[in-house]
Amino acid sequence: xxxxxxxxxxxxxxxxxxxxxxxxxxxxxxxxxxxxxxxxxxxxxxxxxxxxxxxxxxxxxxxxxxxxxxxxxxxxxxxxxxxxxxxxxxxxxxxxxxxxxxxxxxxxxxxxxxxxxxxxxxxxxxxxxxxxxxxxxxxxxxx
Length: 143
Known about the structure:
Structural class: mainly alpha
Number of domains: 1
Helix content: 55-70%
């Protein structure tokens, strides 16, 4: 296995994060517990983007984060610093600032771009710009 694959081992990809977010959006609190436990177990400084996107898009309460992913929650607060919001809504601007200031892994930058372009597409369409079908970022990062 090459160094790139070794560096990316343990990082959450888009499909996995989509699944975790779906679990966090569920009404079933057991799904929240499982998803947060996975986030807690896989959290490293190289997976900050996945953590912050899970926090932003996941809808689990701060109480649940404190119970099931306390280290991840504290790390997220540390990363956000003065931009931390008590409603757990990490902005895309804050995410971008964290990416550039912490030199995140290219896979995590790609993950951010995938979620951000999806958000941007949806926002533009909701404002009536229906001619925008998809905004896509193409990278040379191996899947």
